[in-house]
Amino acid sequence: MEFTDLKMQYRLMKAEIDRRIHAVLDHGAYILGPEVEELEGRLAAYTGARHCITVASGTEALLISLMAAGIRAGDEVITTPFSFIATAEVIVLLGAKPVYADVEIDTCNIDVSRIEAKVTSKTRAIIPVSLYGQPSDMDEINAIAERHGLVVIEDAAQSFGASYKGRRSCNLSHVGCTSFFPSKPLGCYGDGGAIFTSDDALAAAMREIRVHGQSRRYVHTRVGVGGRMDTLQCAIVLAKLEHFEWEVEQRVRIGARYGALFKGHIETVAVRPDRSSVHAQYTIMVEQRDKVALALANLQIPTAVHYPTPIPLQPAYADGYLPEDFPVSSRLSRRVLSLPMGPYMYDDTVSRIVDAVVASL
Ligand SMILES: *Cc1c(COP(=O)(O)O)cnc(C)c1O
Predict the structure, then answer these.
(1) Is the dihedral of CA 216, 222, 223, 229 positive or negative?
(2) Which region is the signal sequence (predicted)?
């Protein structure tokens, strides 16, 4: 069994993926070729945002978004302590300071009731993370941002395809950033990512920053990065997009099946009724995590921990923080365990995994 089965998906979509790859090899526009614009149009339409800017990775999407929003040294950006490192990394890279608001114990997403107390005269932005594939309380976050004149950048690296009150992830705030890392809900076969916004000025800035801050050939009106997504990777996402809606339905269905089978036995990450999760990971919370993981490993069932250490307790980010500063994240980091998940999992595989978890305790 695989933690995320990418080979099965390729086998099913091989004809279309190979056709798209060969079309790029034949036309030769390997950088910013026609597939890049085609994908940006398709993804913008899918999310409902006016602009989509494809970029080199999810991390690059966050970095370019912060740069376009004018985040500079000395600024503060409020975010969650319980995420993949890239969320805070981009803030620190710009010389700004991540200010952490602890998360909710049941969804593992940022706790909005803790955000406003963190706002200072230096605060410029909020980065909520749609962890495991489920958006945070975006209405409340947007309202706080509006009161204080802040930019909201959704880190939707795990949640492309999820919805919130009838709207799609990546189109829930000023800016949404996603990743096409192979194991994300919509993956390519290398690195890739995308930024979404309906703000024309921000989108124009992002397009320039993506290509070294270039407004015209060899005219660099701002400092940028080498942050393009290549044409081949865009072609692969285009091929996969044909089946994406079905895959999202399967992810929601399999997540619900896990949830129903675990109910009354094992605590799982809660999904709020007004939104969906695409379950980039299917995650449970258990006291004896090592024991469960070992029992599953003995049955050839792989597991993973997302994430074993809150960001502010990582060596490079520590800044004198203590586990007690983020009690919920610290507790979750000791208890979370992610199980195999993907749109092509069989129902009896899910049952077998649930049985193995319950029997291990
Ligand atoms: C994967 C991920 C990223 C980074 O995406 P890459 O494409 O790997 O750079 C950022 N934030 C979160 C929450 C992620 O899961």
Answers:
(1) negative
(2) none
